[in-house]
Amino acid sequence: MAIHSSTRTDVNRSAILARLGAGGPASRAELARVLSLSPALITQLVKDLIADGLIVELEQAPSSGGRPARMLGLAASAGRAIGIKVVADHVALVEVGIDGQVVRSSNTPFDATSSTFVSELVERIRDFIGAGADVNLLGLGVGVPGSVDSPGSGVVDSAQLGWSGVELGDALRRAIGLPVIVENNVNALAVAERLYGLGRSHDDFLVVTIGTGVGAGIVVDGSVLRAASGGAGEIGHIPVTDDGPRCTCGNDGCLEAHISEAALVTQARDAGVIPQAAGIDALLAAADAGDQGALDIFREAGRLLGRTLAGIVHTIDPALVVVLGEGTSAWRHWSPGFEPAFRSRLLRHRRSIPVEVEGWQDQSWAQGAAALVLATPFDAAGAGDQGRLIRLRLVGQAATP
Question: Which molecular-function annotation in GO is an example for this chain (predicted)?
Fold first, then answer.
């Protein structure tokens, strides 16, 4: 996605809809304050949304003096979106309202390596949609671990899933009959942060995920950076050692090969910290119990992550770093290695950059995928024809009595 001012405006329009959906009617002044936008920009955005039939002016709000403020509200429920998180062994699905809040969710087994993985995925999506209420669906957002050529096209290359050139977007559109937006799962989380989270207050920030993999979503000037082939943010494949363990990408010594969940478990088994059949829960329990070997494994993972992120901060100069993912449940053990390694390697004027670690639920990935649908109705550049179709469904829902 190219970075220019129009894409920031696109997200802001979606944010207005989300705010009105979550909090009910509001004045222009309140929207400007809550969304950290100028009154002039709010006025223009509201004018456009009214012209589209998506919001309406309501009664005047009471005033203690001066001219009463006109309240704004959604013209209709504005439809819902389906978000899908795809990983190697399961699929998480959510249905969200225009405010981004989860209405319902499901988690089901899935084998990404199966020869019939596309038809299996279609079946799970159909089952989830069929189990819901009869509501207007704006589209599907799909988050995958790997590179996507463009969100509107949805051709996926993923080492974690074992997929190469999979035309997922077209396959799902033909089978489900809805607009489909496909994106790297961490980029999807960055979109959700921009719409609903800490990113509302920052135009430039970095979302980092730790867990089964390691990735980053880079937001610059209010837009997710995708670069030439949609693969920006693959920080898990930054080489950190010359002769380190083999990574899923086929190279040796990648950051992910050292600090992913599987890598930490392998280290713990090899060191005798946990039994050979045990997993990440056992390693976390050992660290919580004060086992020095377990603590050392997490501390070293934090050190490698901190040192790597310091270089990324110097490269893109974000105002904020947000850490997410399954691995954050053990952040108290990562932090003793992360903080000194990260801060000491930053230039002095950058050492105060905030690092926010957010609580984690598995459905957060799918919620981020659903945010792709809600963020694209006004973004013809990034989502192409799919963005146009989502907008038509959104406007059509608002026009329905």
Answer: kinase activity
Residue 381: its pLDDT value, please?
55
Q: Report CA-CA distances (Å) from 293 to 186, 268, 270, 272, 290.
A: 31, 8, 11, 9, 9
Average pLDDT over residues 253-269: 97
Task: State the pLDDT at residue 5.
Answer: 40
Cβ atoms of 384 and 150 closer than 8 Å: yes
Domain residue ranges in the chain: 5-74, 80-190+362-399, 203-319+326-357
Record the tokens describing residue 357, joined without a space.
């670690």
Whether 376 has a pLDDT exceeding 80, the answer reads no
Indicate the CATH number of 80-190+362-399 among 1.10.472.90, 3.20.20.150, 3.30.420.40, 3.90.1200.10: 3.30.420.40
Range 186-206 average pLDDT: 86
CATH of 203-319+326-357, one of 3.20.20.140, 3.40.50.970, 3.90.1150.10, 3.30.420.40: 3.30.420.40
Averaged pLDDT, 232-254: 93
Q: Quick: pLDDT tens for 37-72.
A: 889 999 999 998 888 777 888 876 555 555 567 898
Whether 141 shows a pLDDT value over 60: the answer reads yes
In the predicted model, what is the mean pLDDT of residues 311-332? 95
